[in-house]
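Researcher: Going back to the complex we discussed earlier. I've cleaned up the inputs and rechecked each line, so this should be the final set. Can you rerun the prediction on the complete assembly and write out the structure?
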Amino acid sequence: MKSLMAFFNILMKDMKNYYLKPPNISWGLIFPFAWTLMFFLRSEKPLEIIEILPGVMSLSVLFGTTSMLAVTITFERKSRSFERLLLAPISLNLLMLSKTFGAIMFGIINALFPAIFASFFVDLSNVNWGGTVLSVLLIAVTSTFLGLFISVSVSEVFEAQTFSNFIRFPMMFLCGLFFPIEKLPIFIRPISFILPLTYGADMLKNSINNSGFISSWISFFILIAFITGLFFVSTNRIKKKWIY
Amino acid sequence: MNIIEVENLSKKFDNFLAVKDINFSIKKGEIFGFLGPNGAGKTTTINMLTGLAKPSSGKIKIAGVDGIKNIKKVQQIIGIVPDESNLYDDMSGIENLTFCASLYGIKKEIRESRAKILLEQFGLSDTGKKPFKAFSKGMKRKLTIAAGIIHEPEILFLDEPTTGIDIESARQIRTLINTLNKKGTTIFLTTHYIEEAERLCNRISFIVNGKVIKIGNTKDLIEDVQKDNIVEFFVEEDVNNFKELLVKHFPQIKIELVSNNKIKIISKEKINLMPFMKFFDEKNILVREAKIIYPSLEEVFVKITGIEINKLKKEKEMKKR
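Model: Rerun complete. Updated structure for the full complex:
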């Protein structure tokens, strides 16, 4: 009960201090909003909207989750306030879950924007909503833990920003969001398959317009493996580097 | 009853041994001072005791709990005030305090009421919604201490609590440490202000180059290094007028001139004041003051650590040879 109280308060503190601050809202929400609007306005037919919807949603989740987390943890580490959390009587796993939960929620909210927009232009009755929610959740958790991994791998805020952009921007082009993986040059394709967003986006495609090329079950298990691996590696790095 | 027990504790960073096989215990309700120069291993020791650093070897027992294996259980009963303020810049005083209390699972009403009391006690109630980053250095320090005690810990670790703040704030913090201790809180205090340790601590430990070289109460530590007994006399007459006579009268003692009216009597044996008073009386010299001079803790520290540094130098030289 005491741990849950700590979890909830860390989450609320992060929401208030970071996620609901104007710069984050503008980057995390307005950016995907503008992005979505741009894609949808360029689409000539409703069919195109449903084709690009999984890509836009995946991208919104990716930017929503990673835009703040990597920076906030690095910032708190620099200002030593993260030490206060490490010294609190809550387990490291629960602490990191509370630090990442805000980003996961923010990512999921970001995914709603393109979906709501699309609902005005196309018929979404054939969408598998259960699969869509699960896909969005898995993309959000994976991207958040990727942000966590970035934050524990760097020591300066600018490094976190550079590192996250170094990972995020190639993902836009290599994960099959808007450009099919099978059309990528053959030597680049292996890179696509080591990026988690490829599986998340493909799962989302299967749920929204049935255009994925990987079995959703395979994507599901690969994403679970990414989630477990990234979380395990990140918490281990904290234990080794920060609880020195 | 010992509330903290440390056995053969060491911490190694690559090839550098920051803390070397230290042993000490702290009694419940004690203010224990951990004194040493910068880089002596004070903060590393605190970090090991509080769970921010993993010991390379040794044992820690806090309130009967294994401080290495069950650190999360230990963290429930300890409070930590680090050497640098580590609260949240954008949050106000009350927000910072209530947040810190929530980390220990304290209910909303209780944490809010405790936060208000602490802000009042520390003279910070008028800070309102002012963010922590706008606080002065002294105010920041006080709020950091308040954050360390909001969950009413049994043991409080204070790392250099008065470093870099104004005299008035430092005085308030020292008063607060005493008040907390009177309420039963055991305090582990690291400082490089010897005066502060002398004023506050029941027992003191000296740490140099990662090694605890002396532990004891102030009186014992002073007695250990006091080789001479010294009495200082403050007289009406010019000391030079009777100095030689005094030397002749007391050949076994050493005399040292402090000023024209002050003289130091130094002896290996305990000094009996009566023969001196009789001497001054016979010579019609009015004695304004006579006081026994003890070495200050600072002198003790320099003496002890100096010996240790010399020892280390010798050891290094021996190894080189």
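Model: Worth noting: The CA atoms of residues 96 and 235 of chain A lie 8 Å apart.
Researcher: Good, that matches what I expected from the previous run.
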